[in-house]
Design a protein that fits this description.
heterodimer, A: 533 residues, alpha/beta, MutS, DNA mismatch repair protein, Chain A, domain 3, Rossmann fold, 3 domains, six-stranded mixed sheet, three-stranded antiparallel sheet, 19 helices, B: 297 residues, ten-stranded mixed sheet, globular
């Protein structure tokens, strides 16, 4: 999955693009190859992107989770037959392991078609070429899953093997007699070629037919020598083995020729496997996260209703909490304000995540959405200041990222600013943020800036959205348990976002939150006093 | 030579109720493959066609490390092996049973059944987890599994219900006394007994390293020192003997060491076979066999 110019590394992290990549990961080597080539749809291909997302949703509706998982199980267990097809195309006679890989691949094609043959959203894979190739290998099927260059392929092979078995038996008999003769002379059992004779056990010389490998003071390491009869039997066995090797090779060449003749169609089948793997992974994603087909148009308006950030939703679910879906409408630049812990950053991340999904032609985690194809999605501000050079301050790092982003020529860009310029003086930070929004508007960007700075929206002429915030001041839990405090906070917080039509200084509820999170009463009381002063 | 020795070892192994056997050695060229071949021949003679694999590389004609001739594995039809696909003989053809994603030094692992008598080379997975997977898979095709092991991959024994045969020999030691001390330390380590239920103990998570052992000895630890299994005792030679004498080292999952084999003829030196055989038997207290001289202590 390539990001190309769509995301830089810090935006990849801020938007959980790696989470999305893992969630969509294929399970087969065919899918892995296809996945490497996946890149975002570019502007001008809005229709294709939307149709791609629609196809995934149709697939998710046509096949339930159990069937999709069954398809993935087939894909997960199929070996990679592509190298074998390539080798056959290039004129190599395939090895038996390659022929087993191909047989398994053909079996998987049949199983896949059996599983999803009634689903029009997935292409068929068991083509005539697959069936013809599978038939050619069928004589080699051994048991349910094995492969063997069997006698059934050619009676000459059967004859050669029978001759080899006779030659081997003759050699074994000759060798056995030699062993027996030496053993009788030594008065002990021997087997194999190498053995030790203790000098103390030896009366006289070594028996005939024994060669000395090494002599030591107390023993002799010996080897059975090959007499004329043994050498003759060995020669006949080797000759028979060579005949078998020749017949086996002829069969491999015959089978390889069938694969070579169908190589182009088989290669297409492997690519179709990869395509199915990706589609099925995306359909499972759509099912698991209740995704919808976004309207992907040329209009630059970006909006969604009931949007969710699924990575965060997943995390919250593990803690027994729920994600509050949000609505966003962004047709220009806009400002988002609200209390700490009110979900401003999550809102930005949700915007980025949904735009990212649409860029790859995926269904989006929202009830409905209108999403343009952006040339770039940029995250600026909090969360991106860790990775850059240690000589720069947080503010300097943000500015450098902004400078670089503005220098990149992009016609359509989504810029998400999370508390940009929060580390400088409020007065100048506000001025800077206003100027940035004005510049972004001038470049035609869609931008959403989450901030605690007052008066940014009217100064920039931007729409102003706000998180509704605390419904009241929550009571601190009896214990200092942070998890309990977060649960209490979540219960008191209204995460819904609404447009602000009349500007006024808004509460951030920061002191109340600090108290909830465990700051002592004296300190928070003092803070309230200071606020009044 | 080794038919009776092989049969004796097989009998000892099967008496433990295990269905797989690892041959591990004190070093290179101490007769592991010859021991394995003896046990294999005993299996074949008893009508049990086993599964075979190796940790690393075995059965090749020439030692890849020192270009010396190596004992080869002549296998009979019906034997199942797990080996690398690149070292399979093209002829005679073998029955391909299964493909594995496990990688070895010579390509991915494959499971094959021998269909005609031939020499085979075993190149198995290099990792402990890989070898356990291969053993489990071989058990699906064969009633008994023999693994040509390696002393530096002893972790493969962990978690398995295997019999273990220890091979030692002249190649791995400068003197007979050294060879005996090495094998004594290895056997002592592998034979660490199960911890008594309820006995006061200190459990070592991970490996009992020389540093931890020295610390425990300095503290004059009297409780049992418990490791998960003997492969977690990361001590060798004299250090192992010293620590095992001073500390009451126990384990939760003991191994089944059933025999020791000796190879008196090394490449650079050889020891008097009878002396080595009896010294090793006495030092280890284990049934001990000379696979070359076909003798038992």
């Amino acid at each position: 999955m390539k990001h190309g110019e769509l995301l830089d590394d810090l935006s990849v992290r801020a938007l959980d693009a790696a989470w999305l990549r893992d969630a969509l990961a294929p399970v087969s080597p065919y899918g892995d190859r296809a996945y490497l080539a996946v890149e975002p749809f570019r502007r001008g291909s809005e229709g294709q992107a939307q149709e791609h997302a629609a196809r995934i949703v149709r697939l998710a509706r046509a096949l339930d989770a159990a069937r999709l998982d069954a398809v993935r199980e087939v894909l997960r267990n199929v070996p990679d037959a592509s190298p074998a097809i390539a080798r056959a195309s290039m004129g190599d006679a395939l090895a038996d392991a390659n022929l087993l890989e191909l047989q398994r691949f053909f079996d998987a094609c049949e199983r896949l078609d059996g599983l999803v043959g009634d689903c029009f959203e997935l292409p068929g894979v068991a083509s005539d070429a697959v069936r013809a190739s599978a038939r050619a290998l069928e004589l080699g099927r051994s048991g349910r899953f094995g492969f063997y260059v069997a006698d059934a392929f050619d009676e000459r092979l059967a004859g050669a093997r029978a001759a080899l078995a006779r030659a081997q038996a003759e050699y074994d008999a000759v060798r056995g007699r030699a062993h027996a003769a030496v053993a009788a002379t030594l008065g002990r059992e021997i087997a194999g070629n190498e053995f030790i004779v203790m000098r103390a056990d030896l009366s006289g010389t070594l028996p005939a037919g024994v060669r000395v490998v090494r002599e030591a003071p107390t023993y002799i390491l010996c080897e059975l020598d090959a007499d004329e009869a043994t050498l003759g039997a060995l020669a006949r066995r080797d000759e028979a083995a060579a005949a078998v090797a020749q017949e086996e090779e002829l069969i491999r060449e015959r089978l390889t020729a069938v694969i070579r003749a169908h190589a182009a169609a088989l290669d297409l089948a492997t690519r179709t496997f990869g395509e199915i793997d990706l589609l099925v992974a995306a359909a499972r994603f759509a099912q698991a996260h209740r995704c919808a087909v976004p309207a992907i148009g040329e209009d630059a308006t970006f909006s969604f209703r009931g949007g969710r950030h699924v990575a965060l939703e997943h995390e919250l679910q593990r803690e027994g909490r729920a994600f509050t879906p949000i609505d966003v409408h962004l047709d220009d630049v806009a400002v988002l304000t609200g209390p700490n812990m009110g979900g401003k950053s999550v809102c930005l991340r949700t915007c980025g995540f949904i735009a990212l999904c649409a860029a790859y032609g995926l269904p989006v985690p929202a009830m409905e959405a209108n999403v343009p194809l952006f040339d770039e999605i940029v995250w600026l501000g909090a969360g991106t200041d860790v990775e850059m050079g240690g000589l720069l301050s947080s503010f300097a790092r943000e500015v450098v990222r902004l400078r670089d982003a503005l220098a990149r020529p992009r016609e359509r860009r989504l810029v998400l600013l999370d508390e940009f310029a929060r580390t400088t003086t409020p007065r100048e930070g506000r001025a800077l943020l206003v100027a940035v929004l004005e510049r972004l508007r001038a470049t035609g960007a869609r931008a959403l800036a989450a901030t605690h700075l007052d008066g940014v929206a009217p100064a920039a002429g931007a729409r102003h959205f706000a998180v509704r915030g605390l419904r009241g001041i929550p009571h601190r839990p009896a214990t200092d348990d942070l998890h309990a405090a977060l649960v209490t906070l979540a219960a008191s917080m209204d995460y819904a976002i609404e447009e602000v039509t009349r500007e006024a200084t808004r509460r951030s509820d920061a002191i109340a939150l600090a108290a909830l999170l465990g700051l002592d009463d004296a300190l928070t009381a003092s803070a309230y006093d200071a606020l009044e002063r | 030579m080794h038919a009776r020795v092989g049969a004796s070892i097989l009998q000892l192994a099967q008496a433990t109720g295990t269905s797989s056997l690892f041959v591990v050695g004190t070093g290179k060229n101490v007769g592991k493959t010859v021991t394995m071949r003896a046990i294999y021949d005993a299996c074949v003679a008893a009508g049990v066609l086993p599964g075979l694999t190796s940790i690393g590389r075995d059965g090749e004609a020439i030692d890849m490390g020192d270009a010396q001739p190596k004992p080869r594995l002549f296998l009979r039809p019906g034997t199942v092996i797990a080996t690398a696909r690149d070292v399979l003989p093209r002829s005679p053809a073998s029955e391909m049973l299964a493909l594995s994603p496990l990688r070895t030094a010579a390509g991915n692992l494959v499971y094959v059944r021998v269909r005609s008598d031939a020499y085979y080379e075993l190149v198995g997975p290099p990792t402990a987890s890989g070898i356990r997977e291969a053993v489990a898979m071989l058990r699906r095709f064969a009633p008994y599994v023999i693994v040509d092991g390696a002393i530096d991959r002893i972790a493969a024994l962990a978690g398995g219900e295997d019999a273990v045969v220890v091979a030692c020999g002249a190649s791995a030691a400068g003197t007979l006394d050294e060879a005996v001390a090495d094998v004594r330390a290895l056997v002592r380590r592998l034979c660490v007994a199960r911890v008594e239920p309820g006995a006061p103990h200190v459990r070592i998570d991970g490996a009992l390293t020389p540093g931890i052992a020295a610390e425990l000895m300095r503290a004059d630890e009297r409780r049992s020192v418990v490791v998960r299994d003997p492969t977690k005792i990361a001590l060798g030679g004299r250090a192992a003997l010293h620590a095992l004498e001073r500390l009451d080292v126990r384990c939760e999952r003991p191994l089944n060491v059933v025999a020791v084999t000796v190879s008196s003829a090394g490449r650079d030196r050889s020891f008097e076979p009878g002396a080595l055989l009896h010294a090793v038997a006495e030092a280890t207290g284990m049934p001990t066999f000379d696979v070359y001289a076909a003798q038992a202590a």
